[in-house]
Amino acid sequence: VATVDRFQMIRDTIERDSRNAPLDLSSEEFRKIGHRLIDDLAEFYQTLPSRAVTRSTTPSAIRAALPPSLPSTGEDPGEVFGETVPLLLRYSLFNGHPRFFGYITSSPAPVGALADLVGAALNPNVGGWDLSPMASEIEKQCVAWIGELLGMPGESGGLLASGGNMANFIGFLAARRAKMGASVREQGVVNDAGRWLVYASTEIHTWLEKACDLFGLGTRSIRAIAVDSERRLDVTRLREQIASDRRDGYRPFLVVGTAGTVSTGAIDPLPELAELAREENLWFHVDGAYGALATLLPDAPRELEGIREADSVAVDPHKWLYAPLEAGCALVRDPATLKDAFSYMPSYYRFNELDGEERTNFYELGLQNSRGFRALKVWMALRQAGREGYERMIGDDIRLAEALFEMASHRSELEPFSQSLSIATFRYVPRGFDRNAEGATTYLNELNEEILARIKRGGEAYLSNAVVDKTFLLRACIVNFRTGIEDVEALVDLTVRTGREVDQSLRS
Ligand SMILES: *Cc1c(COP(=O)(O)O)cnc(C)c1O
Q1: Whole-prediction pTM value?
Q2: Nearest Cα to Cα of residue 496 among 418, 437, 410
Q3: Whose CA is nearest to atom 12 of ligand 1?
Q4: Which of 309, 352, 361, 445 has its CA 20 to 30 A from that of 55?
């Protein structure tokens, strides 16, 4: 009797028929809010070029615009969106703006935004095939297409990750398992027989430090190899370093080449690195987060051919495939190496089917367990633009960087420094400036640092910087299908105009 009463009691506290849950939304309301959001966003895309790239503000000003406390009773979602979208439009940096030349962050494809809406609404968990049959197959196809664009061998495979850091980590961990053996998964990294070593150029992105730190090697395992005058890894030095390390009892296991360095877009001599890695029996990983996709161009730089010989490659769809954040991709020549490095078979997963067909459970191939459907936005963009569309967009980005470099060479107050892929670096030098005068270098560094700060504050365009051999440079990255030649011309004029102003104010 007691049990029956208890059941009755619980039953009475739950509303009948419909739970009327605080988070549910009627189809009517969903449609209404959704239509308005789509209208607002269509308007945003339309007005984007006439908006400021960003506006200078402070964290406290932004906090003042947010609700003062957690609401105890709920609010009307339509009203909350109505209030929040304008705030986001006011206080954002628009990397989709045609004059965003800042970091290597792309203009996002609008189909990506729509795809994310579908992905979130259906919410497949792309960790297990059973939990996401169509989404898992779309991710597989998407990864295969990216591999095809890079010219990877047909049997290669991989998965999407949140970005370049994570995709590089996946390649790093596959290398660690492949070269240190299965025991590393139980024992951890054991350096008793000599420290394990990783080789990369001095221009490598910080992900490698994070990886060596986090995955048990320690940052002292990195051998930073000097670069040549074009900031590409010097293979002769690498060869010598490996030989001397072996003589000293170290254990080299991994060589990392970069296809498009963060500072200047330099491409390491990847075919030579691939060959050396093979001779030395080392894992060859390519960090192509930014530049790998330039491989699809008919006139791609020759160095990129080394990508197809890599054991693993990281490439970011949220860079040169113009996917909205977040989307990275890790590819391996031999898909079994990912399972070897990451798979566990817990008793609470029973994903094996009896029909004899193999199913890909992405949780077994990488770091994540539950996984979102980030493949849809990438796959949709690949379908909308096709290979030819990407050839044109990526090719144009590079031609615009070349145009910028040329324009900087023809302006007496600008000094071009480098151009590789779609990154150009340059600086402002006042007319008649005496470079040999005492303090000249320091002055030019200060001057350009202030020019950068003013341009970023002004909102007309957005730039970033590189520091090369202690020289402070302005750096324009064009990963943006909305940027046109008129935007590049405007950037040149803006830099000269700002340069004159800052020079005058620093001298007075
Ligand atoms: C952008 C970039 C990274 C990091 O990628 P995230 O997507 O920001 O995590 C790593 N390496 C290179 C060469 C990059 O350009």
Answers
A1: 0.95
A2: 410
A3: 289
A4: 445
In order of 103, 187, 290, 413, the CA distances from 261 in angstroms are 12, 34, 8, 27
Per-residue pLDDT of the chain (508 residues; tens, 9 = 90+): 577 788 888 888 776 666 788 999 999 999 999 999 999 999 999 999 999 999 989 999 999 999 999 999 999 999 999 999 999 999 999 999 999 999 999 999 999 999 999 999 999 999 999 999 999 999 999 999 999 999 999 999 999 999 999 999 999 999 999 999 999 999 999 999 999 999 999 999 999 999 999 999 999 999 999 999 999 999 999 999 999 999 999 999 999 999 999 999 999 999 999 999 999 999 999 999 999 999 999 999 999 999 999 999 999 999 999 999 999 999 999 999 999 999 998 777 776 667 888 899 999 999 999 999 999 999 999 999 999 999 999 999 999 999 999 999 999 999 999 999 999 999 999 999 998 899 999 999 999 999 999 999 999 999 999 999 999 999 999 999 999 999 999 999 999 999 999 999 999 8
Task: Name the helix (H) or strand (E) containing 284.
Answer: strand 283-287
Please provide the size of the chain in residues: 508
Residue 232 to residue 64: CA distance in whole angstroms: 47
Helix (H) or strand (E) holding 400: helix 375-410
Pairing of strands 312-315, 283-287: parallel
The enclosing H or E element of 159 equals strand 157-161
CB-based contact 478:401 (threshold 8 Å): yes
Helices then strands, counting H and E runs in the chain, come out as 16, 11
- Closest ligand 1 atom, CA of 259? 13
Q: Is the peptide bond before 326 cis (omega within 30 degrees of 0)?
A: yes
Q: Give 170 Cα–ligand 1 centroid separation in angstroms.
A: 13
Cβ atoms < 10 Å from Cβ of 13: 6
What phi, psi does 199 have (nearest 5°)? -115, 135
Q: Does residue 172 contact residue 286 with C-beta atoms inside 8 Å?
A: no
Which residues contact ligand 1 via a Cβ below 6 A? 104, 163-165, 205, 207, 258, 260, 262, 287, 289-290, 316, 328
For helices 164-180 and 207-214, what crossing angle results, to 10°?
A: 50
The ligand 1 atom at the shortest distance from the C-alpha of residue 258 is 13
Residue nearest to atom 5 of ligand 1 (CA): 164
- The residue nearest atom 8 of ligand 1, judged by CA position, is 164
| Nearest C-alpha neighbor of 505 from the set 439, 453, 459 | 453
Q: According to DSSP H, which parts of 215-266 are helical?
A: 235-247
Residue 290 alpha carbon, nearest atom of ligand 1: 15
* CA 164–ligand 1 middle distance (angstroms): 4
Looking up tokens 């939304």, which residue turns up? 25
Residue 253 token pair: 């296991």
Could you tell me if 270 and 297 are in contact, meaning their C-beta atoms sit under 8 angstroms apart?
no
- The residue whose CA is least distant from atom 15 of ligand 1 is 290
